[in-house]
Design brief:
The complex is a heterodimer of chains A (278) and B (315).
Chain A (H helix, E strand, L loop, with lengths): L2 E13 L3 E7 L1 H6 L5 E6 L12 E10 L5 E8 L3 H7 L6 E8 L12 E7 L7 H9 L3 E8 L8 H5 L5 E5 L6 E2 L2 H11 L5 E6 L2 H13 L3 E5 L15 E3 L4 E3 L6 E3 L18
Parallel strand pairs in A: 7-8, 7-11, 8-9, 9-10, 11-12
Antiparallel strand pairs in A: 1-2, 1-6, 2-5, 3-4, 3-6, 4-5, 12-15, 13-14
Helix pairs in contact in A: 5-6
Chain B lengths: L8 E3 L2 E3 L3 E3 L21 E3 L16 E4 L2 E4 L8 H12 L6 E5 L4 H12 L4 E7 L9 H5 L2 H14 L4 E4 L7 H10 L4 E4 L3 E4 L1 E2 L4 E2 L5 E5 L4 H12 L6 E4 L5 H10 L3 E4 L2 H4 L3 H15 L24
Parallel strand pairs in B: 3-4, 3-16, 4-7, 7-8, 8-9, 9-10, 10-15, 15-16
Antiparallel strand pairs in B: 1-2, 5-6, 6-14, 11-14, 12-13
Helix pairs in contact in B: 2-4, 4-5, 6-7, 7-9
Classes of the chains: A alpha/beta (278), B alpha/beta (315).
Chain lengths: 278, 315
Amino acid sequence: MPLVIEAPVIENRKYPNDNYVLAVRAPEIADQVRPGQFVMAAEALHPILPSPLLKRALAVYTIEDGGHFGRLITLLLRVVGDGTHRLARLRPGDRLELVGPLGNGFDISASKGKLTILVAGGTGIASVYLLARELLRNGEEVLLIYGGRSHEDLVGIKDFESLNIPIIITTEDGSAGIAGMVTDGLTDQLERISGRHLHVVTCGPNPMMKAVAKLALAAGGSCHISVEAKMACGFGVCLGCTVKTQSAYRLACTHGPVFDAAEFVWEDNELAIEPVRL
Amino acid sequence: MNENVNLEVEIAGVRFKNPVLTASGTFGYGLEFAEFFDISRLGGFCTKGLSLYPMEGNPPGRISETPSGMLNAIGLENIGVDRFIAERLPQLRQYDCVIVANIFGKTIDEFVSIAEKLNGQEQVASLELNISCPNIKEGGVQFGHDPKMAFRVTQAVVEVSRKPVWVKLSPNVTDIRIFARACERAGADALSLVNTFVGMAVDVDRRRPMLSHTTGGLSGPAIRPLAVRLVRQVVETVEIPVVGIGGIASARDALEFLIAGARAIQVGTANFVDPTCAIRVIDGLQAFCTKNKISDINELVGTLEPVKEGALHYY
């Protein structure tokens, strides 16, 4: 059941390339969030409305023990526009208004008895950390393929290293791991593990997920994607975040954000354009 | 809470616990908000626009944020009046909540058919005719932007409906008073305004419109002063009650409309930002009345002081 809460920022960790991890005291959300769910977040300025007006959808990245602060959730974000810029400026003691947890989350049973390959691009890593942890707890086998433009984009690497799972790094500039895209790393792995029951979970830019899904399905695996879409509410009423599936339009917020790649219809004109920030 | 303040208002014989409703298209079918607060506390809510048959709406690229507001071109995605009656109304029975069914047709006959289907539904207190959706090719503009058509569709629904009929007006016209008068003459019981203002935003990185529909409806605090002015114009033009809509996110916002003469108001886009916004507005109205020793909120309606003699007074 989603909640509307005001939550203090405990820490704002700055990383290279405009990446930030906000640690927020939100035990109510930490208690009920499932892997793959998200929150809608904006600075709480009651009675003044924040500007930009709409909250931003952010995956719940990790759950931490904040000592005397209680349980924290962390939100990983990269500044791409006004909303994320505003969030990135928050300081400890500032308050966030959160609505959540929201969304369907990952289907844990889809990994049962299979090798689960997590394929994350950039901030897409935030959607799969809680999943990796839960799968490991269930005794499942997990492998991570994690890519970015450069090693500086790999904000989540330390958190995953501490999970002790195999990690394949890819960077477009070759500054770490395989020089190339996550799909290069995935192709290698698929050759190596042919014959195994396979479940691929991917989160990142749409063109990346489209390519990953194609490889995964061709290899006979199942593939679940966690999509991002512009949304005003996050709980199924604005109807703004519609995506196409084989059967019908679906909402990224309540029917998703996790979809079966085999049923998802990709937009033809999907372009991976990095907004020019002026 | 001060129990002595009366917040109840009445529109065309229907009583609302307070003047705070939620606007069509921002409140789903009501049930979506029941997990955030007790929806029985609302004055009432307007359903997502209901059509004769289910509609799937516009392709992705439906919303875009703009300064203090947002553009939308949802394209009236809805489950249709039959499914609303069969699936949602029974679930809504557990709430003591006044339901205003927002309805939309591509033709006058469709409007009439929907109104007839809702006639037998006791839970539906009033109808709100959407003749002002800017985001579909058929139906919206042809009724909302032609006073003769607005008259005809209103008259046709009033004739068959056993419920009070509100008409939701478009602000995208040269003189909204012409439409207000046409609907009043056609027998409308109340007017609600405004629907969204047509706007457009461009994705400069891709050099294409932000919305798949190219244009969309602007809502949110950005439109509030535009809406207050139009509400005032209509209040001074017609005798029937007016329901104010446009960028309301706080009790102070709501009071602007009430003082300008609206009998009730609707919270819209703010429901997306804070799903409990309408409750904050209700509590704020109560507090305002208590502090100002106003025992009945109706005493506030239309109390806008005239401007001083000699000041320019036209809009």
